[in-house]
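Task: sequence in, structure out. Protein: DENN domain containing 5A.
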Amino acid sequence: MSGGGGGSSAPGRFADYFVICGLDTETGLEPDELSGENFEQTPLRRTFKSKVLARYPENVEWNPFDQDAVGMLCMPKGLAFKTQADSREPQFHSFIITREDGSRTFGFSLTFFEEVTSKQICSAMQTLYHMHNAEYDILHTPPTNDKESCSSTGDCNGTSVSKLQRFNSYDISRDTLYVSKCICLITPMSFMKACKKVLEQLHQAVTSPQPPPLPLESYIYNILYEVPLPPAGRSLKFSGVYGPIICQRPSTSELPLFDFPVKEVFELLGVENVVQLFTCALLEFQILLYSQHYQRLMTVAETITALMFPFQWQHVYVPILPASLLHFLDAPVPYLMGLHSNGLDDRSKLELPQEANLCFVDVDNHFIELPEDLPQFPNKLEFIQEISEILMAFGIPPEGNLHCSESASKMKSLRACDLVSDKRNGNIAGSPLNSYELLKENETIARLQALVKRTGVSLEKSSSSHKKDLKIQCDEEEFKIYQLNIQIREVFANRFTQMFADYEVFVIQPSQDKESWFTNREQMQNFDKASFLSDQPEPYLPFLSRFLETQMFASFIDNKIMCHDEDDKDPVLRVFDSRVDKIRLLNVRTPTLRTSMYQKCTTIDEAEKSIELRLAKIDHTAVHPHLLDMKIGQGKYELGFFPKLQSDVLSTGPASNKWTKRNAPAQWRRKDRQKQHTEHLRLDNDQREKYIQEARNLGSTIRQPKLSNLSPSVIAQTNWKFVEGLLKECRNKTKRMLVEKMGREAVELGHGEVNITGVEENTLIASLCDLLERIWSHGLQVKQGKSALWSHLLVQKNCHTLTIPSMSFSFSFFSRHIQNISEIKTDVGKARAWVRLSMEKKLLSRHLKQLLSDHELTKKLYKRYAFLRCDDEKEQFLYHLLSFNAVDYFCFTNVFTTILIPYHILIVPSKKLGGSMFTANPWICISGELGETGVLQIPRNILEMTFECQNLGKLTTVQIGHDNSGLYAKWLVEYVMVRNEITGHTYKFPCGRWLGKGMDDGSLERILVGELLTSHTEADERQCRTPPLQQSPSMIRRFVTISPNNKPKLNTGQIQEAIGEAVNGIVKHFHKPEKERGSLTLLLCGEGGLVSALEQVFQHGFKSPRLFKNVFIWDFLGKWEDAIPEPVCIFEMARNFCRFITAINNTPRNIGKDGKFQMLVCLGARDHLLHHWIALLADCPITAQMYEDIALIKDHTLVNSLIRVLQTLQEFNITLEASLVKGIDI
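Result:
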């Protein structure tokens, strides 16, 4: 979190070092090759190496000085030269140095220009110009016949370049040469505003005609040794060269220290873009900020990470990426980096190693490029409105101030297309006018305006008069920045407090002691994600399911688990938990935890008041700067030049510091460093340090690039760590996905949670696609598109180098199918579809292995250090992916729901009974979880056909029948096979029944329930699979063959058990979240379904007077119709029952008697009437005649038990598939 800091034994000083960087006249001009500048540029535009010229003190034990890092970050582009013709305004920027343990040091740097006094340097620059001009003349002399055309157009390339040439030229006799120099403060905490004032006043002292009151050494000594860090909850005043400087630090019950202006971020990007960038950061995408201004990069990065409270960015964090570290953009891990732009190149010229999961933010041009499939932040519209109301109260337009950005004109041209996409994405109203109108309608704003009119004062006046009462010690503008910062931060913090108000309930506390838990941390589940998500409102799920998988969330929960008690709690966690407790108290009376109702922030006033009080009453005033014990003649300076300071007086501080002794108790100093490590454990120090290292390694192998030694061996070592990290991540991901997919069986073995939800499964597969993209991007020689994986697939397809012919066909078949799907527009989308399809077909590992088997192509595409060229790791990676073949995924079918899919049908009639003589016209209708085909006519005597229709999802039923025409209209169908030609899934629909009048139960059409067949093509690679879906029970003939010796097939106990299991299956179905439910048709009509169980009830103990005759249950339901009992209440129920039977008998469909019974059971289940009908039929006199005494239906105890079981279906809203109730209108 921003603002954490301090070493383990820091004595509470405000600043640790004062540093001066610039041109070392002794070593002269050294070109900075690492920054990658073009030597075609004029010498004034090139960069040269800068050096740390001086630092005071030399070193402090609690924060060792990192010369390379400071030198690189103070002047990230090296030295810059200018002449008197150029603008030479001083530039301020801040930076962060992150140590390997994650703790941070903050730097604040002011860069200004000084005249070059060294004649050697001026001569060297002149020589470089002579050389450059000579080369330029050779390269750019225009051919003679082109001269006229040049002069006529007046703007040909040659002249424009020569103008630029003259503008950037340097003539030693005519021009004054200036070089950049930088003064810098290194501090343990991020008091940005105070440090900026200190540096600006120091610079002012050397540029103003009047000398400062004291030598500069006095002020620098004061800030280094006499100004303390303000303790938590206190404010501090100290003296700059020309005026007082005030800073204040929040208490431990407030949001952590953050001192960057949030206003600037919203002005530069606008609310909509900030919220989208914030969402990308929370989901740990790679984020690249791009700006000409170092301070803007820093402000945006620090603001986004500060707004994440209580969560923390756990990965690579380099808000200012020095030019020499550009190779780090190749890192295949989540990162948040800032890249300096030269202001000349546009986005299209920027070659980035990987873009599949990248969020690119052009800060100067109000432009953001988002990764695909970015879920929406919960309650995004209301959230944006709440932020906008605050911004407008401070006079900031919610869409941002375009005059802040470098290319307002570019933005205007983008505006029209942005409006369309914004409205489509459901963002805030598309134009500035609309957003104001939207906010004007808001009740709060309206009440505020009415109040203002009545009192006759403007909002500005009221707020300033309020400050006068309190006598705020800082200027009005600064106070407004404090106010806006805290208001915006409170609104963001409130979103998480509301979203995770009951998070503690779902934390899984370890059963063993903390140390054992810590040792097995990777294998342990620390949060009940499935239960938490099932409690959340539906619209939150796409975001939350992905957020729960992030490293920042895992660290947050780990931290919670490792807290022994309140005192031991990390400060950030303590603040968050206290806020959650308050919300719980408020929500006792109005429980809103589990609704998507938007709860506005109520903590703003209290937070603002705390800051006001600190600024009104300064808690501590530091010692004033004073004359030091300097030799006579020291402390003089020359106007316009920052002097060489006296190191003897600045190298050591005073022997004792009274303020430190009095106000900084040892305990506070000890805890200072702890404030940064908000994710470390409350164990002893060794264990804690060990945990910090391990925790970093869980999410990403490298937390921070080393800013020192950039030798090839160090870069190679860094990439090796990336390779190891990618393999570890692959292992963890595949294990997690398998454990989740295998469900209860895995839980019993001690691995994790029970049911995986569809949302979670989709999230896990999306994160696997992201991982594959990162692996394929690592060490890529030349990028050929946004998706490295898809580019590789296309190159491979075009090379035709696959060694196995069948695989080559499968490969190109896959890629061709994906390319032909018009709904997928982008390369990244195509790569993800390819991965999903390969997983569904259980070919992912095999296909990738084949893709990488062309070693020559891999060598051509990838650098030596790339993951895909590390053979052992590559083998292990493919082995991990092979484990996905153990389970069935429908990740392609369930995601690409609107695409056209070819289906192949095969109808297999009985070979024995004259299928070839069949004369009628058959038809078929296929239904799936996503839709149905409608009736498809099958040409006579054609048993195989292919058709194309929109994705049906997993197939559930087939309706098959014929029109009863011709002489032999009888058809005995054994089964029907349907194959999805893209995914290869084949479903078998068993039948084994006649379709024809006078045959079997007289049915001309039947509903068949399907089963997904196991694929045998990968038998060698598969060792087990999940159980198949239920199959159609039609093979068990649904009529009773009556004979004198007839015995019931099942006893009453078995029948009761079958009923119980069938009902239990339906109950479980409805207890799952809606998106995760399977097919209800299978539970009603499939093998072991409700229809088949009730058939057993009615077949049990049945007696018949006739021999050798097939008698169906439906024949007797018709007889019950004639035997209506007398009592009125029973009479009404019987009338209702008869109405259903009559409606089914009158249906225009040609379903047989068993089909009618199935329809009756389904309608009874839908209308919650089954238990009434069973009671009615058990008491009907005709039952006594038709059933033997042992029959289940005549046993009152068993019937009552059956009724109670069926009553449990009453609470569910059963919706029947259209194929089951076609033609019935009840």
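The mean pLDDT is 76.
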